[in-house]
Amino acid sequence: MQAVKIGLLGLGTVGGGTVSVLSNNAEEIARRAGRGIRISHAAAKEYNADAIEGLEQIEEITDDTFRVVDDPDIEIVVELIGGYTPALELVLKAIENGKHIVTANKALIAMHGNQIFSAAQEKGVTVAFEAAVAGGIPIIKAVRESLAANQIEWLAGIINGTGNFILTEMREKGRNFEDVLKEAQSLGYAEADSTFDIEGIDAAHKLTILGSIAFGIPLQFDKTYTEGISRIEQQDVVYAGELGYRIKHLGIAHKSDKGIEMRVHPTLIPESRLIANVNGVMNAILVKGDVVGPTLYYGAGAGSYPTASAVVADLVDVTRALTTDPENRVPHLAFQPDALVDTNVLNIEKVETAYYLRMQVIDRPGVLALITKILGDRGISIEAIIQKEPAPGLSNVHVIFLTQRIQEKNMDEAISLIEKLNCIHGNVTRIRMEMLE
Amino acid sequence: MQAVKIGLLGLGTVGGGTVSVLSNNAEEIARRAGRGIRISHAAAKEYNADAIEGLEQIEEITDDTFRVVDDPDIEIVVELIGGYTPALELVLKAIENGKHIVTANKALIAMHGNQIFSAAQEKGVTVAFEAAVAGGIPIIKAVRESLAANQIEWLAGIINGTGNFILTEMREKGRNFEDVLKEAQSLGYAEADSTFDIEGIDAAHKLTILGSIAFGIPLQFDKTYTEGISRIEQQDVVYAGELGYRIKHLGIAHKSDKGIEMRVHPTLIPESRLIANVNGVMNAILVKGDVVGPTLYYGAGAGSYPTASAVVADLVDVTRALTTDPENRVPHLAFQPDALVDTNVLNIEKVETAYYLRMQVIDRPGVLALITKILGDRGISIEAIIQKEPAPGLSNVHVIFLTQRIQEKNMDEAISLIEKLNCIHGNVTRIRMEMLE
To answer: Which CATH class is domain A348-433?
Structure first.
């Protein structure tokens, strides 16, 4: 059988990796797919030809992206440009031309996925995006296909490698945030503008996608609560450890009677959980289904080859499904388009979690009573308190509270009142806490 | 669209779970699959009707299994009887009748899979067996589909929950093997005849399947080396811990220039590896692909609902693929049937690993020199030695060696010579060791 002809947009990190993988493992891939998968055309503004193994096998490389998208011989377009412009226009044009799409573009799917999938459905083509979430970890396929018997109750993922690298170094080596961030930038893990990683936007893009395929709701990035790790201090990592917890930057999607929670924030989790032991740049997603219980998926969440692994797996899937009736393909968001439900996504105020609170208090009698009264008045039960010895010459001491689960609104009120107390120095540090049971 | 009609063979633990899951989550499943999946007929010799939710929705329950297999309305037969007889005959008859198969029967696939897949290919039907390996963990789909871009280098799995429960209890609570085994039997984790679990036969069935789909080789259970955990002593678990290792009962498949290794045995692995922290009855499989690097899949490896989760996921997949051309379906053993390669499976003698050796020696000068000479003469380098103080009143001491990698044949020779030394008491305990890097 003739090889499938692929048009590739973008020859950067992931694009170059995809070219190399399709070339290096061509035999292995064809033995599985039953036919070859060949990039016939590629488009890129600029690229490093010497760095890409197998580039010579591409028939034509152009800087005109639309030439690839409009080529009648191409059956599948792989979009690895990233960003919104011109990626959105190119993807929509390719769909209009009846081509299937494979993309690693999490921002594009999170922001414009509903529009893209609807256009694809109309044209009877498929858009595959395994590489958009957690790089080489096959989490999209796991949730969409392997857990099809389950009502997904929640999922929690370490889905940004840079953030996990920073938190791991802070814990293992006692380093502070800024110091590790600089190293991550010099190692190439973090971009010079690290906002997307550090402030959780990248993770929120991925969580938006995971939440949709888990619960069968439309993509709605704007409703995902996003909080970064830049305010995590070394001492919080240490105190969490003393209490038997680790701080991880998690993307959490949770479904309850009240609605759906979609939130990215630093989270204390028990150190005995497997996911608490996922270190460095590695990613992992823990998914709780009502039937299967907890399952976890671990691997490299970024990088040229791991992401290319997911792109090529999608290419094999799409190649197999070329002749399938569109209605028998796996639906884009796991559920049939007419079976999506627009379940309410809760505002963070309405979310219920446990909390880690750290505050600097003046070391004098009666202070703890004032604080615990404020907490108690708002129904906040205390699970544990640690009071740290004051540093030599200082009269302020650190007090750490672990609370039981309470609605965020009540905690907001309590913290605002606590911060007004005379005996409190500075702001209260608040980190949400999940047992992941 | 009309619901797909399923014929179910077996209403035991997994069969009952499958009935309940299809009933309880019918809406969720249909929202994903685009149509209902309904068990119209079931066959079982005996079953506990009160224990199975949703049983009343089955049109007809019979004790005549062939009536289900021969029913012309049934499109997919789910075989959950287990064992070889009459499962093999039923599956082959169902295939002959043009029905697709879903099975959780690892023994059947490991022993008769080549014959079954060949019959299925001839009839243009598919045989799905996600539930046969590691229960609810979607490892078959991950390896067959998600890692299609990769040359799989090796995989290592905790694929028997009973064994992992026993080793976990021995480590965490200092209990001995027999004691924990009895508890596992009373908890229902282990069968009264625990040979399949404890001696690694169950794990070898699963490893045989994993090795085939990883490397594209025919199923060959008889070439899988199998060693159980019944000879692991409490003290070995303790000494391994002191050295920074944990003992896990692993199924390992490894491909090198020399051939393929397929082996199930107790293994020392560094405690810092994620898979070393998989405890209790949980399963996990670590897979190393050349492109994606290491990925890990974790979850419940057995039990009614987790296994049913995999059975139902297969039912959704098969339902979607009912109208697919057979050549565009995912091949049974991941590679196209004509692309399977009968790569040599190495005899355990030719396998190369590192070793943990424990021996009781008489505490007198020159003994270590004798032992290290025997090792050195066979090219075995020593990585670490610990000598334990003799117990009060005893003159024998425990000496533990960690060696570097060496061919098993050399180690066999060395151990046989060491055991002949006058200064050695009893047998040498030998546990293989893998870094899983």
So the answer is: alpha beta
Helix intervals (H) in B329-420: 367-377, 408-420
Q: How many CA atoms lie within 13 A of A239 on its CB side?
A: 24
Render pLDDT for B371-428 as a digit per residue (tens, 0 to 9). 999 999 999 999 999 998 877 777 789 999 999 999 999 999 999 999 999 999 999 9
As its CATH architecture, domain B352-433 has 2-Layer Sandwich (3.30)
To the question of domain B4-128 being in CATH 2.40.30.10, the answer is no
Give me the phi and psi of B238, to 5 degrees please.
Answer: -65, -50
pLDDT digits (tens, 9 = 90+) for A111-161: 999 999 999 999 999 999 999 999 999 999 999 999 999 999 999 999 999
pLDDT digits (tens, 9 = 90+) for A164-191: 999 999 999 999 999 999 998 888 877 7
pLDDT tens-place string over residues A72-115:
999 999 999 999 999 999 999 999 999 999 999 999 999 999 99
Q: How far is it, in rounded angstroms, from Cα A309 to Cα A218?
A: 27
Q: Check residue A174 and give its pLDDT.
A: 96
Rounded distance between C-alpha atoms, residue A287 and residue B397, angstroms:
48
Coil vs helix vs strand at B245: strand
Tokens (6 digits) for B11: 């209403």
> Residue A142: which of B138, B330, B331 has the nearest Cβ?
B138
Same fold, A4-128 and A140-299: no
One-letter amino acid at A339 equals A
> Which of A21, A34, A216 has the CB atom closest to B31's CB atom?
A216
pLDDT in tens, B122-132: 999 999 999 99
Locus of tokens 């009573």:
A369
Best CA proximity match to B229, nearest among B172, B180, B185, B192:
B180
Residues B265, B200 contacting (CB under 8 angstroms): yes
CB B244 within 8 A of CB B150: no
**CATH match of B139-300 with 3.30.2170.10:** no
Among B298, B267, B270, B301, residue whose Cα is nearest residue B284: B298
pLDDT digit string (tens) for B69-85? 999 999 999 999 999 99
CA distance B31 to A84: 31
Average predicted confidence (pLDDT) for chain B: 96
Buried b (16+ CB within 10 A) or exposed e, A188-224: ebbeeebebbbbbbbbbbbbbbbbbbbbbbebbbebb
Please check the confidence at residue B214 and state whether its pLDDT lies above 90: yes
pLDDT tens digits for range A2-20: 999 999 999 999 999 999 9
Q: Determine whether A206 is an active site residue.
A: yes
For residues B262-299, b (16+ Cβ closer than 10 Å) or e, as one string?
bbbbbbbbbeebbbbbbbebbbbbbbbbbbbbbbbbbb
SS3 A328: helix
B173, B360, B362, B430 from B388: Cα distances, Å: 21, 10, 12, 17
Residue B329 pLDDT > 80, yes or no? Answer: yes
Domain boundaries A140-299, corresponding CATH code: 3.30.360.10
Q: Residue ranges per domain, chain B?
A: 4-128, 139-300, 352-433
User: Quick one: closest CA in B to A297, which residue?
Assistant: B297
ipTM tops the 0.95 cut: yes
Q: Look at residue A364 in the predicted model and tell me its pLDDT.
A: 86
Distance CA A102, CA A25 (A): 19
Nearest residue of chain B to residue A17 (CA atoms): B291
Q: Is there a contact between A33 and B148 if contact means CB atoms under 8 Å apart?
A: yes
The neighbouring-strand residues paired with A297 are A285, B297
Q: Which helix (H) or strand (E) holds B123?
A: helix B106-123
CA distance A310 to chain B (A): 7
Residues of A in contact with B334 (CB under 8 A): 32
